[in-house]
Amino acid sequence: MITTLTTEDIKTFLFQLPIPELLKLIAEVEEKLDTTIMMQLAETAFDEWNDPEEDIYDA
């Protein structure tokens, strides 16, 4: 059985968590976001290395 959660459903659940658990979750989410953002920024630094002619080596 697959359940689709809405943002409101998630917020309702989250606000029922004890404060220490909520703070721990916030820290984990922030860490995930920071990592994802840094990875996206790092990708732009390698754009100059993207050479379609070198894609032949991927095969």
* Rg measurement, Å: 20 Å
Helix content: 55-70%
> Which structural class is indicated by helix and strand composition?
mainly alpha
State the major sheet: none
Order of helices and strands: HH
Count the beta strands: 0
Basic shape: elongated
Kindly report how far apart the N and C termini lie: 40 Å
What's the average pLDDT? Answer: 88
Question: What ranges have pLDDT less than 50 throughout 5 or more consecutive residues?
Answer: none
Q: Please report which band the strand proportion falls in: under 5%, 5-15%, 15-25%, 25-35%, 35-45% or over 45%.
A: under 5%
Descriptive notes:
The chain has 59 residues and is an all-alpha fold. The chain has a domain at 18-46. The chain contains two helices and no strands. It has helices at 7-14, 19-45. The longest helix is centred in the middle third of the chain and has 27 residues, at 19-45. The model has no long low-confidence stretch (mean pLDDT 88).
